Amino acid sequence: MKLLGVDFGQARVGLAISDRALPRGAGTVARKEAVARIVVLVQKERIDAVVVGIPLAPDGGRGLRARQAANFAAEIETNCGVPVHLQDERDSSREATERLIEAGVGQKRRAERIDEMAAILILERFLADVPGARQSGKTGEAGRAADRQDYGGVGSADPCPEPAPHQEFSPENGMDSQL
Q1: What distance, in Å, lies between the first and last C-alpha atoms of the chain?
Q2: CB 30 within 8 A of CB 12
Q3: If we measure between CA atoms, which residue out of 117, 138, 147 comes closest to residue 49?
Q4: Whole-model pTM?
Q5: Using CA atoms, how far apart are residues 115 and 100, in angstroms rounded to an integer?
Q6: Distance separating alpha carbons of residues 143 and 71, to the nearest angstrom
Q7: What is the pLDDT of residues 132-159, one digit of tens each?
């Protein structure tokens, strides 16, 4: 399965691509041009699914930035016609900065690469979190079809669901019940 990772930002959007291997950077684009650029990349690179980072709150809830990222993901799905998944991206910018510093990237170059590196991290996390993301090993359209089947569609592999209401344990069902 060939994936496009997206680090959504108000001004810039970082991009990365993975084809069952380590993700590689695919550049940074201005937010206002991002959807058009993503549509081109999906077609040119034969992307099977897009993974958009969503900045969840520490408690797992969705604040304003997370809702904006989810809306951006919906816009991508509408325009690209491929499944779009959401991936928790908490601390991705911090981790991206640390990786770039460790690699000896200077401050100016680091500022240019931070969003792209965050997109790489989003894909790495998605590949680690989602069973079947690297499974089929088949190539070409047969591999893409097999991987799509492993993946399911939007939401089936969504590690960022809306937070559930507060629940408490119920002995009758062994599960939590809503208060």
Answers
A1: 41
A2: yes
A3: 147
A4: 0.72
A5: 11
A6: 29
A7: 655 443 333 443 343 333 333 333 333 3
